[in-house]
Specification:
Number of domains of chain A: 3
Shape of chain B: globular
Oligomer: heterodimer
Radius of gyration of chain B: 17 Å
Number of domains of chain B: 2
Strand order of the largest sheet of chain B: 1-8-6-3
Helix content of chain B: 10-25%
Distance between the termini of chain B: 9 Å
Strand content of chain B: 15-25%
CATH class of the largest domain in chain A: Alpha Beta
Largest sheet of chain A: 7 strands, mixed
Distance between the termini of chain A: 80 Å
Number of strands of chain A: 25
Radius of gyration of chain A: 29 Å
Number of strands of chain B: 10
Helix content of chain A: 40-55%
Number of helices of chain B: 5
Chain lengths: 664, 190
């Protein structure tokens, strides 16, 4: 059965009846409401920085679910998550201090109201964004066979987010132990549910083959029983369920932003469970209220007396250091695709907490570029082909990573990273920091980038620049002068943050070899993900900086430049694009004064721009001449001749170096 | 057998290290005569005319607008009976030094260019060495009949570096640049 929330629709008997409740549960509800009211008061007094979204009137949703949970279960929630957090943890002091920006806050002031983590609760402020993360946590629990479950709280307004449906599809298809609780308060901020949500809530679950349950916060005994039944169902059946709880928010969406009819709000206040019990037994409620008020008073006083959250001393200056150059041989030459596969296989074999996720990567197919071909047979259950759901793939990876599983997510074409960018930027990259180092997100996202295959505008881009500079992430670009298998060894042995691995499509078919053009020496810096250089044996005229697939074209160009124009170039090719190790590049530019930067993606506000800015900051006089070559400022065309004309190639590099060197 | 006489940038101004090739006054592949003005070059102080050092077919190496170090060849005069009759023959490094040329499509699927380049070196006229000469330097070496592997050079060698090495190897150290240039411009005929 499904309902549209409206006062007149409610069961009259429920409204009139005095609920029979365990005093313990009532005290929890009163405590949560007291905390929320105090937070609003603190905000009005200027003692809270930012915002709060209180759950006054909705306290029971978290309470009844928490009653059914056990150690090892997880709860994921969104912006209106205080009640869920308190229901699960009873950490009034940590929550109040967090919102007051104190070091003693549950996340030391880093997360604030919408980003809480403790006691198995994770909250985040992006609507629906936690859905695939919850699925990932549930997948990890399924692997571990602990019988633990995951709870995902969503609002009715969140039903407009597409990623929710990606997650619903996957949790049903893979039968994950996840209970989705739709907390239906009838409004998406100011918009009535009737204006924003079509169809019925429960029908969404049944459409995906998920069992649906329904309750409301006015018949509290039924709600408690249903919640327990739902969790038991998920735990014991090992399959997902959806619980639709109708409720009502008695306070504004945030602080004072309430455009609802006051009569409607008053009507719901009259049937509020706490109010009804208060009318029936005022002494009981007053006693419990006194206890709650005392505790909240103490929590506020303690927070006010404690240290404000302060950042550690830090500098944004590029890390300059002495560069040591090493010569290493590529022991096992092979095509790029083979070396990546070898790197994956070797690490999966040696670490049972590595899982591959992606579209079409399993079975005989082995991914669109065959990188994972054969791995499914070698490692059954560790190579998971997913539905076409890029955001959910990354979200699953994040959830697994939070449980210590290194997820390697393949996005079939780098162009599709845009579909998953919310998961990368707002979730994967944020959790470690906003949860105050209580979690790590060892996530690897592999994706092919680049053109020259005639795939056209949506399958040929080099979009990595859009993912450079996201704090707490790493971006690596494979190239043919450093064994990708070795790159993966380095990555798996040290992955401590979300890492985007760029595989230019031209790498796949290229021979990975250390046989550089005659006259140049191949060396690598000693950093973890080294910068590779082709050091010319001779007087150097210019520095060429490139990465990934462009290195092949640059190598061809430096031979032409030397043979035909007697211009000798040193080539610098960093594997790690972000954070950037500027020192090797600066070392070369100081020597030559002339720099050409080559990137296949569009150059505006791109990788090259950042390098030049850093060079100018660190050594303003080092750079005398500069040119940048990049992809076109229009979509990449499909026709071979058009594509060849607009993508940077060796002839562009030759022309640009000659220009850079022209006036000495 | 054809001979190749380099047209070198004159050492006109001792303060300069290079000069700009303003324009070619003769056509690439066309016939020129000894003493004919074939190019015009600009130093920091003046524009100078460059004479053809021989009669034969003009092979333009540098392009107009290029800055060319002093002593480097901007072109060659091919002196042979058939030179003037085949002015459209394309220039190729291979015909001088026995080098294979790098095809433009080596990037597509055959592996990185480096693997081919190493092979070039092995197959070069100079054997398996650690020296690699620019195209111009190869032309000069071929022209003067000097084996560059005997000069103590390593790595990437430009024309000027090659000529300086030749000068060091064959003349007393007190010789001037002009003398070195004169010496190179009048090479022994092989």
């Amino acid at each position: 059965m499904d309902c549209q929330t409206s006062f007149s629709d409610l069961n009259v008997a429920d409204q009139a009846r005095v609920p029979k409740l365990d005093e313990r549960l009532l005290s929890k509800a009163i405590l949560i409401r007291t905390v929320e009211k105090r937070l609003l008061e603190l905000f009005a007094a200027g003692k809270l920085h930012g915002t709060v979204h209180t759950c006054i009137g909705q306290e029971w949703t978290g309470i009844v679910i928490a009653e059914a949970l056990r150690e090892g279960d997880a709860v994921l929630t969104g912006h209106r998550g205080h009640g869920h957090y308190l229901s699960r943890t009873d950490d009034v002091e940590g929550l109040v201090a967090e919102l007051m920006g104190r070091q003693s806050g549950v996340c030391a002031g880093r997360g604030g109201s919408q980003h809480l983590h403790g006691g198995g609760v994770y909250s985040s402020g992006v609507q629906g964004g936690m859905a695939p993360v919850a699925a990932g946590l549930a997948l990890a629990r399924k692997y571990e066979r602990t019988g633990n479950v995951v709870i995902l709280f969503l609002g009715d307004g969140t039903l407009g987010e597409g990623v929710v449906y990606e997650a619903l599809n996957i949790i049903s298809k893979w039968q994950l132990p996840l209970l989705v609780v739709v907390e239906d308060n009838g409004y998406a901020q100011s918009t009535r549910k009737a204006e924003a949500v079509s169809g019925e809530v429960g029908a969404r679950a049944t459409a995906f083959g998920i069992d649906d349950f329904h309750a409301d916060t006015w018949n509290i005994e039924h709600l408690l029983a249903t919640a327990k039944a739902c969790v038991k169902h998920v735990r014991e059946e090992g399959r997902p369920a959806l619980l639709h709880i109708e409720t009502y928010r008695l306070a504004p969406h945030s602080k004072g932003d309430d455009n609802r009819d006051p009569a409607e709000v008053a009507g719901f206040r009259n049937i509020d469970v706490i109010e009804r019990i208060k009318t029936d037994n005022p002494r009981l409620v007053e006693r419990l209220q006194a206890v709650a008020t005392s505790r909240v008073d103490q929590a506020v006083a303690r927070a006010e007396a404690s240290e404000c959250a302060m950042p550690p001393l830090a500098t944004n200056s590029p890390n300059m250091h002495y560069v040591r150059w090493l010569y290493t041989q590529i022991i096992s030459p092979g095509r790029g695709v083979e070396r990546i596969r070898e790197g994956l296989a070797r690490n999966i074999a040696s670490n049972n907490r590595i899982v591959l996720l992606g579209e079409d990567i399993g079975g005989d197919y082995g991914g669109a570029f065959k990188v994972t071909a054969g791995l499914d047979a070698l490692f059954p259950g560790r190579v998971l082909s997913t539905p076409i759901s890029e955001a959910a793939i990354i979200g699953l990876g994040i959830g697994m990573a939070l449980e210590g599983v290194i997820s390697v997510c393949e996005i079939m074409f780098g162009d599709f990273l845009t579909l998953a960018s919310d998961q990368l930027i707002n979730h994967a990259a944020k959790f470690r920091y906003v949860y105050n180092n209580k979690v790590r997100v060892p996530l690897i996202v592999r994706t092919p980038m680049g053109g020259r295959r005639g795939y056209g505008a949506t399958h040929s881009q080099s979009l990595e620049k859009h993912f450079l500079g996201i704090p707490d992430t790493r971006v690596l670009a494979l190239h043919h002068r450093f064994d990708p298998a070795e790159s993966l060894n380095l990555l798996f042995s040290t992955v401590d943050r979300p890492t985007l691995l760029i595989e230019n499509k031209s790498i796949y078919a290229c021979l990975i070899s250390d046989k550089v053009p005659a006259g140049w020496v191949l060396e690598h810096s000693s950093s973890k993900f080294p910068t590779t250089r082709l050091r010319p044996l001779g007087s150097v005229d210019a520095t060429i900086l490139c990465y990934g697939g462009m290195l092949m074209h640059v190598e061809q160009a430096i031979e032409t430049l030397f043979e035909e124009y007697e211009l000798v170039c040193e080539v610098m090719c960093p594997m790690q694009l972000y954070p950037l190790d500027l020192a090797p590049i600066l070392e070369s530019v100081k020597q030559t004064g002339r720099l050409l930067i080559v990137e296949e993606g569009s150059g505006y506000a791109g990788f090259g721009s950042e390098v030049v800015a850093q060079l100018a900051e660190v050594s303003p006089t080092a750079l005398k001449r500069l040119r940048r070559i990049s992809g076109p400022m229009h979509p990449i065309p499909a026709a071979k001749t058009l594509e060849a004309a607009v993508l940077p190639s060796s002839s562009h590099v030759v022309d640009a170096v000659r220009e850079v060197c022209r006036d000495g | 057998m054809a001979e190749f006489i380099p047209i070198q940038v004159p050492f006109a101004n001792p303060n300069d290290t290079a000069a700009i090739l303003v324009e070619w006054l003769a056509v690439h592949g066309g016939s020129v005569t000894l003493g004919q003005i074939v190019a015009r070059m600009e130093t920091t102080k003046t524009v100078i005319d460059v004479d053809s050092p021989a009669t034969g077919r003009l092979d333009c190496v540098a392009e107009a607008g290029a800055e060319v170090p002093l002593g480097m060849a901007i072109g060659f005069i091919e002196v042979s009976a058939g030179a003037a009759s085949s002015p459209t023959q394309p220039r190729s490094v291979a015909r001088y030094a026995g080098f294979d040329t790098v095809a433009d499509d080596t990037l597509t699927s055959k592996g990185p260019p480096g693997s081919r380049a190493v092979a070039h070196r092995v197959q070069s006229a100079y054997g398996d060495t650690d020296i690699r000469l620019s195209r111009r330097a190869q032309l000069v070496a071929s022209h003067i009949g000097m084996d560059p592997t005997t000069l103590g050079l390593v790595g990437l060698v430009k024309t000027r570096e090659f000529l300086e090495a030749v000068a060091r190897a064959s003349v007393p150290t007190e010789m001037t640049n002009e003398q070195i240039t004169d010496d190179v411009e009048s090479p022994p005929v092989s």
